[in-house]
Design a protein that fits this description.
- This protein is of the alpha/beta class.
- The protein has 2 domains: 127 residues, Response regulator (Rossmann fold, 3-Layer(aba) Sandwich); 65 residues, Winged helix-like DNA-binding domain superfamily/Winged helix DNA-binding domain (Arc Repressor Mutant, subunit A).
- It is 58% helix and 14% strand.
- A 5-stranded parallel sheet has the order 2-1-3-6-7, with helices on both faces.
- Helix 6 crosses helix 8, helix 6 packs across helix 9 and helix 7 packs across helix 8.
- The radius of gyration is 24 Å and the shape is elongated.
Length: 210
């Protein structure tokens, strides 16, 4: 399959070759890349392009529950949005899937437009996630450039400490605190204190989920 790396990609995992063929044609018709798999193992062994995407997953694969596979993906740090499809209306499972973060739970035969809508939602969600990760990675790169003292100053500044108080706590002159604070703002490329606080919050959130 020739993949246009400028386009998002949809991964279809379904053991029914007729379903795979039909979904392949549908997804190509909306000008998206698609790759189909008959098993979850095939998907895991596939080298995924570094582009936004989502997974269309049959919830009842042979020997494996789609929800269990979703948990396996999370353990492998594969966080692509998932759209579940099934040939059996299963209300309890659909509720579990949505609560687990699935984009949609569609029962075959489903309206093509419903799947297309869900795919666009999934791709946009993944695009936003990737953008957020890129932003945090850039903030981490800037943060690494700070000295130990500058990190101390940054922590106290974003906590609301005035220069005079910070100077007393760290046994520094107020002038020295001002100089370090200026360096922090410059290295972090923060336009204002509010901007710096938002950066610190993003770094903190990332540290908690790492």
């Amino acid at each position: 399959m020739i993949v246009n790396n400028d386009k998002p990609i949809v991964f279809v995992i379904d053991d029914d070759p007729h379903i795979r063929e039909a979904l392949d044609g549908l997804i190509r018709s909306i000008q998206l890349n698609v790759h189909t798999f008959g098993t979850t193992e095939e998907f895991l062994n596939f080298k995924r392009p570094d582009v936004p995407g989502c997974i269309v997953l049959d919830v009842r694969l042979p020997g494996l529950n789609g929800l269990d596979f979703k948990h396996d993906l999370e353990k492998l740090n594969i966080v692509l949005p998932i759209i579940f499809i099934t040939g059996h209306g299963d209300v309890p499972m659909s509720v579990r899937a949505i609560k687990a973060g699935a984009i949609e739970f569609l029962t075959k035969p489903f309206r093509h437009q419903d799947l297309v809508d869900a795919i666009y939602i999934g791709i946009e969600r993944d695009r936003c996630r990737r953008q957020a990760m890129s932003t945090v990675s850039e903030l981490q790169r800037r943060f690494i450039l700070l000295t130990v003292r500058e990190r101390q100053i940054m922590q106290k500044v974003v906590s609301g400490g005035p220069n005079k108080q910070i100077a007393a706590e760290l046994k520094l002159s107020e002038f020295t605190v001002k100089v370090h604070r200026s360096h922090v703002m410059h290295k972090m490329q923060a336009r204002s204190l509010v901007d710096l606080v938002r950066m610190a919050d993003k770094l903190h959130d990332r540290a908690k989920t790492a």
